[in-house]
C-alpha cells in the first residue's frame, strides 16, 4: 500500500494538492520490487473528483505497470471499502498480471 499526499474536504474542495513526485517515487519502488498491477483507491468524494485517481493511474502507466485499476472507473461507489475491495480484486485478476496456477499447466 502506498499513501499519497492529497486531501479533499467533505465538500470536494482541494485542501492539499497531490504530491505527484512522491507518488511516482513510491510507484517506481513498487515496480522495482516486481509489482506490475496497481489498484488506485482514494478516499475522496468519488465519483465527484476522479481526476486525482486518474492522474495517479497515468503515472503508474508511464512507469510501466501493465494493469492499473482506478476505483472511479472500476466501481464508482461512494463507500470507500466496497469500492476499494472491488478495485483491488480487479487489479489482481485483470488481465492475469500474476501468474496464477492453473490445472495442468505444469507449475507446482
Describe the structure in brief.
The protein has 108 residues and is of the alpha+beta class.
The side-by-side strand order for the widest beta sheet comes to 1-2
Structural class: alpha+beta
Would you list the SSEs in sequence order as H and E?
Answer: EEHEHEHH
Report how far the terminal alpha carbons are from each other.
Answer: 28 Å
The number of E-state strands comes to 4
Average pLDDT rating: 83
Helix content: 40-55%
Polypeptide structure, described:
The chain has 108 residues and is α+β, with helices and mostly antiparallel strands. Helices cover 41% and strands 12% of the residues. It has four helices and four strands, in the order ββαβαβαα. It has a two-stranded antiparallel ribbon with strand order 1-2. The longest helix is centred in the last third of the chain and has 14 residues, at 80-93. The protein is globular and about 35 Å long. The protein starts with 6 loop residues before the first strand and ends in a 15-residue tail after the last helix. The mean pLDDT is 83.
Amino acid at each position: 500500500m502506498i499513501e499519497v499526499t492529497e486531501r479533499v474536504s467533505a465538500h470536494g474542495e482541494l485542501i492539499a494538492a497531490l504530491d505527484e513526485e512522491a507518488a511516482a517515487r513510491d510507484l517506481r519502488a513498487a515496480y522495482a520490487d516486481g509489482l506490475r498491477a496497481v489498484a488506485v483507491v482514494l478516499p475522496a468524494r468519488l465519483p465527484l473528483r476522479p481526476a486525482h485517481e486518474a492522474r495517479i493511474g497515468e503515472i503508474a502507466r508511464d512507469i510501466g505497470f501493465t494493469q492499473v485499476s482506478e476505483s472511479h472507473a472500476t466501481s464508482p461507489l461512494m463507500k470507500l471499502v466496497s469500492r476499494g475491495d472491488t478495485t483491488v480484486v480487479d487489479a489482481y485478476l485483470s488481465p492475469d498480471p500474476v501468474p496464477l496456477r492453473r490445472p495442468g499447466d505444469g507449475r507446482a
